[in-house]
Specification:
Elements: E1 10-14, H1 25-30, E2 36-40, H2 57-72, E3 76-80, H3 82-92, E4 100-104, H4 115-118, H5 122-133, H6 136-147, H7 159-167, H8 170-182, E5 194-200, H9 208-218, E6 222-225, H10 232-235, H11 237-248
Parallel strand pairs: 1-2, 1-3, 3-4, 4-5, 5-6
């Protein structure tokens, strides 16, 4: 509920791989006039423990998201990248009260460009451990090289990319990456939830073809951000806020 006493629709945000909830605080603040925004924690990222089930990390996260949806009844859930695949897993086999789902730059059916690297798991874990133990200038330099693959405007690469990498538990990130590389079963249209898919014209990690594929299989609209990279909430924050603002009018 806002300060004016008006009840706002609740929006749940699920962050992506190698990100923390902090990455989406600017988006949450920009949406505050339209939504009651909740940021979903993912143990193993955000420095808040780790999944309690060995293997199947994304399925475990999906269980946590399903529980939050049942408790807090958001009108919209937005999943970014890995968060989008978690949301797909959440909705596949469950009957949940959820009016709208937004799948943003979601690997589908699998994370394609880096499959060969992340399928083994250990290169990701070793790389993150090396970054976390290296002197800051070296570690941040390595993280910045990767971060530049996620945004089109390299001026948007900031300290938070490095801080997130230092906060993440390497074994958890490696397990999540392996699952993203193995992929998810093809999905059918959602029976109980309206949905929309977003993709970016300059997304190197999840090419626009994957967004089209997901939108086709779900039989839902595809919204594109032609000038944005994978981290669309950095490259096209104002446009993304406008998009979610238009969605709020349909609630």
């Amino acid at each position: 509920m806002g300060f004016d006493g008006v009840v706002k629709p609740r929006l749940l945000l699920i962050h992506g791989w190698l990100h923390s909830r902090k990455r989406y605080l600017p988006l949450a603040r920009a949406l505050a006039e339209r939504y009651d925004v909740v940021l979903q924690p993912l143990p193993g990222y955000d420095d808040i423990g780790r999944p309690t089930r060995t293997g199947g990390h994304l399925a475990w996260y999906a269980d946590q998201v399903a529980g939050r949806i049942r408790r807090q009844r958001p009108q919209v859930v937005v999943g970014f990248s890995m968060g989008g695949q978690i949301l797909l897993r959440t909705l596949q086999d469950r009957t949940l009260t959820l009016p709208w789902a937004v799948f943003s730059n979601t690997p589908y059916p699998a994370l394609a460009p880096l499959n060969g690297l992340v399928r083994r798991g250990w290169p990701v874990a070793w790389g993150l451990r090396a970054v976390q133990k290296a002197p800051r200038p070296l570690g941040k330099g390595l993280v910045d090289l990767f971060a530049r693959q996620t945004v089109r405007d390299h001026r948007l690469v900031d300290d938070l990319f490095y801080e997130d990498a230092c906060r993440i538990k390497p074994a958890v990130a490696a397990a999540s990456a392996q699952e993203l590389a193995r992929g998810i079963d093809r999905v059918a249209p959602l029976k109980h939830t309206a949905a929309v898919v977003t993709g970016s014209g300059h997304d190197r990690l999840v090419p626009l073809a994957q967004a089209r594929h997901l939108a086709w299989d779900l039989a839902v609209p595809l919204v594109t951000f032609p000038e944005a990279g994978h981290t669309v909430v950095l490259d096209a924050l104002a446009d993304y806020v406008s998009f979610l603002g238009l969605l709020a009018r349909r609630l």
